Amino acid sequence: MENTSIDLPSWLHRIKLPIPIESLKYINVYMISDSDSFSLIDAGMYNMKTFYELSKEIKKLGYKFNEMESVIVTHFHVDHITLSPVLYSLGASDFYLGLKDEKVVRKGFDKFITKALKIYINHGMPSSEANEISKSHPAMKLIDVYINDLQEIPWITVSNDSEIDLYDLKFKIIEVPGHTPGQINLYNKEYGILFTGDHVLDPITPQITLTDENTDPLSDYLDSLEKIASLNAKIAFPGHKEPILNPSKRANEIIKHHEERLNEILKLISKSPLSAYDIAKKVKWRASYNSWEEYPYPERFFAMGETLAHLKRLENLNMAEKKEVKGIYLWKKI
User: Can you give the chain as a three-state secondary structure string?
Assistant: First the structure.
């Protein structure tokens, strides 16, 4: 399952692991190694098929689990972090996570999702739909892993001032909030290699979801994209899909995409006030569904959160405002 279309340095291997998320299908986990041991960037998802494929690939590459030294998790999403407790039990000693994401994990991921859904109800989502999302969200299906198993790991938190040394290679940690509050990227300047997690993807765009009304995740994300674009890295290795040969160009393409989405939403609320829920149903998402009712419940969660992320940015730019009407917030263009 290792990619062969691009020549990788001898110390780097890409491992594609299947995950039970239909819209993504697999996650990229990266092995960095020397002759005696290895470390992983991202852990994968708590799923038997995922773990089996990881075990098989590690063996194929000539290593054993007891030679695993560390795991660097780019962010706390279910497909990137939840296999960590299994890897911890197999002997990896050092587990790294972004400082702000570690705080979310410690406080309880169930609280994180529940708080978001309360916000979505205030912005027009029916309570019955929010309840269905709570039951079907991939992370909520593995909530015991978050509540119990991930708490046992002695996480080493990293931020913009951090650097990780692996086998005579230096990786600069870059905080890239937006997709999650504390997602991190790793940059090796010597090779011009960037590991982007879910910050920069191609051809899909990462979900930017508002889960706290006191935050502005889209503005954070756009700032983070500018930061990555300025690196002029030679190649990016993302959490999903294929390697990106011009990450700066792709970052700028994603910035443009969000500018277009902001204008689309602004147009929707220019004639009459709408709730974020009604806006989410009208946005032209890049999906194959014909109606909102066809969207799986987790996809509705992300669509609602992304709509609110764009509305929050418009609000902070003084281009849109919200008003409470009969217990529901309605948005209109200023």
Answer: CCCCCCCCCCCEEEEEEECCCCCCCEEEEEEEECCCCEEEECCCCCCHHHHHHHHHHHHHCCCCHHHEEEEECCCCCHHHHCCHHHHHHCCCCEEEEEHHHHHHHHHCHHHHHHHHHHHHHHCCCCHHHHHHHHHHCHHHHCHHHHHCHHHHCCCEEECCCCEEEECCEEEEEEECCCCCCCCEEEEECCCCEEEEECCCCCCCCCCCCCCCCCCCHHHHHHHHHHHHHCCCCCEEEECCCCCECCHHHHHHHHHHHHHHHHHHHHHHCCCCCECHHHHHHHCCCCCCCCCHHHCCHHHHHHHHHHHHHHHHHHHHCCCEEEEEECCEEEEEEC
